[in-house]
Structures are given as C-alpha cells and as structure tokens.
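Forwarding these from the shared drive since the link keeps breaking.
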Amino acid sequence: MKKSLTRQITAGIGMALALLIFNAATSYRNILKLVENEAWVSHTHRVLTELEATLSTIKDAETGQRGYLLTGEERYLEPYHSAIDRINVQVARLQQLIVDKQQQQRIRDLKIAIDSKLAELEETIVLRREKNLEAALQQVKTGRGKQIMGGIRQQIAAMTAAENQLLQQRARESQTSANLTILTFTVAAFIDFLLLLLVYYLVKRDRTLRDNAEIKQNQLLGQLEYDRHSLQLTEERFRRAIIDAPLPIMLHAENGEILQINSAWTELSGYKYSEIATIEDWTEKAYGSRKSLVQADIDRLHQLNARISEGEYTIATAGGESRIWDFYSAPLGKLSDGRSIVISTAIDITARKQAEAEIRMLNATLERRVELRTNQLQAANQELEAFTYTVAHDLRAPLRGMQGLAEALLEDYRDLLDELGQEYARQIVNSGKQLEDLIQDLLAYSRLSRTDLSLQVLDLESAVAEAIAMVQADAKSSGAQISVRSPLFAVIAHRVTLVQAIANLLANAIKFVEGASPQVQIWAEEIEAPQEPETDTQTAGEWEKATVGQWEHSQLLIDSCRSPAPTIRLWVEDNGIGIAPEHQKRIFRVFERLHGIESYPGTGIGLAIVQKAADRMGGQVGVESQLGRGSRFWIELRKG
C-alpha cells in the first residue's frame, strides 16, 4: 500500500514536472519559430524592393534609348548607361536573396530577358548612331523590344506575387506559434494544478505513512531542485534566443517595466539597457515630443489579446540619426503578479524607405525632363513651320517673276530670237513650272506633318470616285482604263488627305507605263487584326503625343498604343514598268526617284505624300511588284 501511494505521488509530481519541461521546450521552439518568421518577413521585403528597383532601372534604360532616338544627342544616353551599370548589381543581389527553387529559376529567366532587352536597346542605338533615325525606327517597328519588355514585366509580376504569398504564409505561421505558446502555458498550468490536488489528497488520506512521506518529500525536493535547475537552463536558452536574435526584440510588462531587450535593439537604436529600463525611458529618448502619442499605442497593446501590426514609426537613435522601424507585437500572458506581458519585434526599413523616396524623386525628375523635351520639340516644330512658309514664299516670288519674264520674252520678242533662243526660253518656262510643282508638293508634305486631322468614317467608293475625277485629264490623254471592283467598304480617315493619296497612286499608275494603254484596277479587302501582347498604353500614348507631326514615320508609335482592330486594304494595280524588290522600300521617301525627270516627269514626292498621309491617319502603305510586270500599291486603314 505504501509503495502504491508512493508511486502515485511520484507519478503525479513527475507528470507535473514533465509538463513544465515540455511547456518550456515548446515555448522556446515557438519563440524561435516566431523570430525566424520575422526574419523571413524582412527578407521578403528586401526581395520586393529589389524587384521594384530592377523594373525601374529597365525603364530608365528604355527612357534613355528613346531620348537618344528622338534627338540623336549622346547626353540623352546618360540614364541608359547608368541603368546598365546598376542592373547587373541588382540582379546579382536578387540571386543572393532568393532561396526558393522556383523563384531562382524565374530570376535566371529574368536575367536572360534583361540581357535580351539591353541587347535590343543597344542595337537600336547603334543603328541610330551609325546609320540614321529611319534605320533605328525600322528595328523598333519589329515589336521585338516591346515583346521582351512585356515578358520582363510578367516575370517580375510573377516573382512579386510569389514573394507576397510567402509573406502572408510566414505571417500566419508567426500567429500560429504565438497562439500555440499561450495555449500550452494555459493547459499545462491547469493540469499541474489538478495533479497537485491529487498529491495532496493522497498524502492526507494516510497519516500513518508520514515518516515515509517525509523521506519521499525530501527526495521530491531534490528532484524539484534538479528540475528547477533544468528549467533555469531552458529559460537561459530562451533568453539567449531573444538576446541573440537578428531582429530587435523587447519583452515589456503592463506597468512599463522592460523585462528583456536584445542586442539588436540596443545596437540599432544606440541606447544601452540602463538608459531605457522602462517604456517611458524608451519613448522619451526615441520619440521626444511625440512620446505621448506613441505611449497611447503601447498601452493599447496590453488591452488587446491578439497579435497586431503597429505600423511604421520614426525613432531617433542615440547618435541623433532618424530611423524608420516597422513594429509587430503579440501578448505572452501574465506574470505571477497579474501584469500582462507583450513581446514586440521591429524591422528597420529605413533603407527601403530611402529607396522608395529616391524612386519617387527619379520619377518626378523624369516627368519634368519629358515635359521639358516636349516643349523644346514643340518650339522646334513651330520654328520649322515658320521657316518652311518663309522659304516657300521667298522661292515662289522670284520664280513667278522668272516665269513671267520668260513667257513675255516668247510672246513679245519671238521674232527677234532664233530657234535656239526660243528653245532656251521655253526650257526656262518648263523648269519654272517644275520648280513650282516641287514647292507645292513640299508644302503639301509639310502640311501633312503639322495639320491636325479630324478622322471620321468615310465611304471608300466616294473617295475613290473623287480621286478618279482628279486624274481624269491624264487618263484621257493617255487612253487609260480605270475599273473599280465593289464593294469598297468604309474606313476611318480624313477625306481630303485620303483622296489626295489615292489620286497620287492613280497618277503613278497612269504615268509609269510603256508600250501599252494604262490598265488600272481598284478593289478592297478586309484584313483581320492579329492578336498583340499588352503594352504600356500610357507611356506609348505620351510618346506619340510628343512626336506625332515631327517624325516622318510616326506610324510606329501610333501602332504601339492602338488596340488591334480589323482593317481595310485598298489596292491600286497597274500594268506598268514595275519596281525591282531592292527599290520597293525607298520609293516612299522624299525625292527618291528611280528614273530621270526626262523619262517620267514629276517631283519625287508623290509617294512620300502617300506614306505620310497613311501615317497620319493611323494606317500603312506598301507595294507588291516585279520588274516589267506591273505593280500593286495598297493603303491599309482601320475599318469604319
């Protein structure tokens, strides 16, 4: 009976001690888990900051490239060179920070995409520097750079989403660890209480075993001393885990007493433990005049029985430096005297905030620079417009006088001139007429670059009929046959501009024919729009606004910000001399002629006007031709 009672008492006390040890070990493990999770939260914030900075750097490189393409000045490449110097460092930091295997694969794919983007930017810059603006624009028109940039955005977005998911998961794990610690303390204390009641009951029941119980009690006291020592060791480990944690950690009681503060807290703040023995000391030194507001938030922590994110606070360090800390707190139960305990952790986010401020400043600076460059381009465009009209006026005034004098010479002094003199006078008149046509075409081309075109839905049949009427005289004199195949559909265009472009194509179709009567065929077809990847619409729209009317090939910029839509392609086919493949692109340039003026009269601007007209209406032009087998010119516009 005595042995049975002894075993019962020993078992009850042993279970109580085991529960105490288990509770301490579990709490220690949960605190370590909490500290580890908070460290990973800080790590995730660093990854997100690096991802944002990497995307901003790529944008800087692209901005520098665009500025150089617009102006051709090397100083505009400064953002581009600066971005290249930073981007490799940023990608290397990301590779060091990211530990997730899937994220590591994404960062490798991102580096490949960034290298492709930088190579594409360098290629366009080299084309602009070694050749000309048009060669660089042809490279941009392929859309390869836009596609690469879209891929970079998608990759960074995927990585950011993955890091945010990890951030949420680690926050949930921290909450679970804190709750589990509290639950373990509560359950263990309740069970210990029941076990002690059982021991007391067993001792009280059999007074005859008092002497033996005293012996057992001494043994129990020895065991308790041993267990107390073990518990002290566990508490010491717990205390060292807090003190040596990489994040600032503080344990404080409800009355403001700071029970524990770790090395990271004192090192980052610069204050010794003796200087901030209470919460009041901490708020006085770290917050100064704002201490009353902060103290109210701290008091609220002891009233809430839940983990909370306090938010960002600016603290003053012992060295006079301002730092920004992001605080998180959670309750840890109560002391034996009834005071509540709260554990507070912090993350120093000063570097991240400084980086965000720098990014905002860079964005504001970039906007001011874009606005300045836009104003400069507009001023230059206005000066060019005034210059064009001045030159046209100054050229046409003496030209009319020369033509008038030559015609008067032929009319009034014909009998005094021999045949050679009359021929010279006629050549003066013809040359004046050619120069007059050239000036008129140059003015028409210049007006297309400057005039605001009001686009509307037009019936192609009426526009084609009007263009045919404009070339009717030439068609009649050459015996040309012009046939139109219905339907011609409706398009979005500017009527006067579209009629002039069609008339220029018809005039060429009638003019460039040898040994036969010109045969011209006109018809239209609907083209389904291809699916295109998403683009940065706002940026493309702002770029178009700054450059439309100033670049000869603004179609590249218009296409980049326009949603895909069905288009109508109008064809003009002839039976003329045809165009060799190597010349089919350059015939749309100003003053590009494949034949001498003595063979085929003209100014060499007609097809350039067609190209400019299509660009201004948001369309495209092209030609399909073989030498000696005629040509098929087309104008493609959005469907009305």
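-- next protein --
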Amino acid sequence: MEGHDNRRNVRVSGTLYDDDDNKPEECSVCYNDYDDNQLRPRTLPCGHTFCSQCIDNAIKNGQLTCPSCRGQHAATAATQFPISYGIKALVRKLKNIQETQEKTVPAKKKFRSMLQEQKSSISSLIKSCEEVLSQLGEYRGQLGDWKTHHLQLQDRLYALVEQNKSAMKLLELEDTSVVDMTTQGEEGKTQLQATLGNLDTVNTLQEVDTTIDTADECSTKIKDWLEKCQELFPDVKTVHTSVKVQETIREALEMTTTETGATADPVHLGDSASSIMDKVQEITLEIPQKQLTVEDLRRMREPVKRLVEAGRVLAVQEDQDGRRSARLTLQDGQLYLHPLLRQPTPAHAHTLQESEVVGVLDPSCTLAFLDLGWAGSTRGRVTIRLTPDTPLARQFVLLCTGQRGHTYRNTKLLRVWDKGQPGECVVGGDYESNDGWGGAPLLPDLQGQYRESGRAGAVWARGGLFGPMHSQFIITTRDRQDGRQWSDVFGDVVSGLDVVRAAVNHSDIKEVTVVDCGVVLPL
C-alpha cells in the first residue's frame, strides 16, 4: 500500500501492530491527523483504525486488505465501516491539550517577562539605594567635619574670652594706678595753689622763708609726680594686649555674617537628579561672603578655597577701553592668575583689583607658566622661574598676565633651532603677528643685569635687548657642548621641560600653541 513502506510492523502472538501507536491522533498510513471530513477515523472489523481517505484508496474490486494485519474485508467504500468515536474523542482531547499548551507558553513568556521586569526594577532601586546611602555617608562625613570645626572654633572662642578677661584685668590694674596717681596729682595741685596764695600774703622775712620752703617742697613733690607719670603711663603691655585682643575679637565678629535667629533666604537646589553633596555645595556657595581681599587669598580658608575652585573669584582691570577680568585657579595647592581677557563675569562672582593681586608677587621669586597644546588638547604646563627684578622678566610677566593688553595666550611656537643637536631650542611669543616677524617690546628700556647659560631649560630673549622682536622668547631643550653660552637669560624652566621637548618632536612646531599662560601667586 502506498505510503506504508516507510512504516515498520511487528508481529505479536500472530498479530501485526504498528510501532507508531504512540501517535493515536494520526493515521498510520498517511501520517495525517484525523479530522471530521475525509480524514475521519474508521475502524475495520479486524479492529485497526485508519482515515476514510486511506480506506477508500485501499479498496480494490470490492476487497480491502488491512494495512496492519493484512486481514481481508469486503467493502466498496469507507463509509461502510463505523466511525471510531473513541479515536475522535482522543484527538479532540489532544487538540484541547495542545491549544492549552499554546496558550500557556505565551502566558509563561509574559510571566517571565514580568518577573524580569520586576527584577530589573528592584535591581535599579537597590543601585539607587546604594548611591543615596553613599551620599548620606559622605554627607555625614561633612557634618562630622563641620562639628569638629565648630568645637575647634568654640575652643578658640573660649580662648578669646580668656584673653579678653586677662586684658580686662590689666586695664583694671592700670585704671587703679591712674586713679591713685590722679589723686596724688590733685592733692599736689591744691597744695601748690595754696602756696601760691600764701606768697601774696606774706609780710615778714620769716614768713617769706617759711612760704618759700613750703613752695619748694610742694614743687619737688609735683616734679617727682610728673616724672613718675611719664614713667608709668601708658603701660605698654596693657595697651598692646588690649588693642590686639580687641582687634582679634572684632575680626572674629565681623566674619559672623548671619544674625542670631535670622531666617535664611531660600536657595534653589537645582533638579532632583542632583546629589546630596551637590546640593550642599550649592548652599555653601550661595551663603553671602564678605568682600574678598588679597589677604583672604593668602589665608585660603575653606570658603574662599571653594569659591576659587568654583571659578567665582576674578581679578579685574578697568580702563578707558572697558573692563577685563582674569581667572584665578587652584591646582596642586598653588594659586594661579591667568591673563586678563574681555569675557563675561560669572553670576555671584567675587572680584579683586588685578593690580592688588599682582602686587603680592615677590620680585625675587616670580613664577610664570605657559600651557602648551596641540592636536586639539592641552599637553602640559611649563613653569618658569624668572630672574629677580630684570626688565625682560617684568616684560614676560606683563605678557603672561595681559596687563598691557597683549598676551602670549593663543600664540604659536615658531621654529626649532638645531633640532636633535646639542643646544636645541624653540622660539615662540610673537604676540603681534604670530608668524615670527612681530613681538615688539612693551618696556622702553630692557637693559639690566642678566645671566649667561648653556644649560637646558634656560629662557632668553630673541634678538638680545634691541630690535623689533625681543618680546619673543627662546627655551633651550638640550645643553650646549661647545662651551659657549647664551646671553640675556632671564629665566629657567623649573617644571615641564619634558612638555617643551615633546612639542619640539611634534611633526609641525607651528601647530603647537600657548593655550594659556599666567603667573603663580604665593600663598
């Protein structure tokens, strides 16, 4: 029978059984699932079941041979055999099971998706919880620092109170001495006045002698009193202690800007995504500060340090052309003054006069810096110690700070001399044309006492002390070995010489730029 060759039958007790009875829902001849039409299951007299279509195909000349047991049955059509309702019921049940499974699979997938979504949500909350716990830990650390500072301040306040008490005791003693001396002086004055009256009334020689003796005695006492007053008053220790203690306490009180019981103005804390410590910083930066002074920069206490780090401290210069400002930055414990530029002033910025800031520079130890960069990024800072109080050094400071309107900022390095050889050096600083043909002096006379040097790191002027380009600078990157030295040396690189050497080895020296410049302010 067609389609039956691929199926294997086994004989048990003389009866053939199909070895695929584990699939009762399908016809063992055509392998199709039974249905309610042409594939309806029908049972032969021998007990085997096949679909109506296969039975019709197997009937020949009114005879049917069972595909399973090879039994012979007389038949002309499949409809002569009864429908196998048991098989139909089994097929229906299997289909229901299958449909249920098919419905269950998406449900399980949805269930798994919901579980995964819930797990993701919980994981996200755990992460957020850990972040906030970390912020709370950091905030608690900050609170601990503040509590420690308050205790330290409290101890200092107690010390101030004790100093004030000691000063008051000294003043009381001084006041007592002054009262005693005042009493003595008033008594002496009364005696002198009485003696003066007696001199007008004497009549005899004896009275004259007596009155004059009394007058001499009173005069001697008053002279001694006057001399003693000059010696005793004022008591230097008392006055000095009182004035210093008053000054210290007054300064401490002036730094207290918040009145007791005053309600702080509301501070906008930004969006909810800001961390706790971000909000703490916003609050502390919004607290009103007294006018900053150069002395505040020298002390660099924590509030001032935070303002500098936030970019809210500027040095300003105003002239007939308007206002320019210079940034102050803090890095590695050093305070840097950048060049004056025409730029907008940040909100809530604290300003100082640029002349006052520059005035703190020590002429005997001035440090300037150049930030070099190429290929779109800053590669490093070059710090130069300038020769004390020389015109070329002063001119270099002017061009690093922009006090005269010109600056080395955004100028290119121009050329390399003796590249790869002893005495290698690089030229830069044409603030005028930026091509090597400019760089006029800013000072009328550049003559002074300069050094000579043949060592790497020496900084000297191009063209000596005369000519149209001696604002240009030259930095030596390799020692000379011929015994000769460069003249007009006005500085030495103290850090960042490796940055200059890296610039020299760049493919095109003219791509190297002085990205920024300025001076180091002593703290």
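Residues 1-20, 257-267 have pLDDT under 50 and may be disordered. The CA atoms of residues 34 and 114 lie 38 Å apart.

- D.
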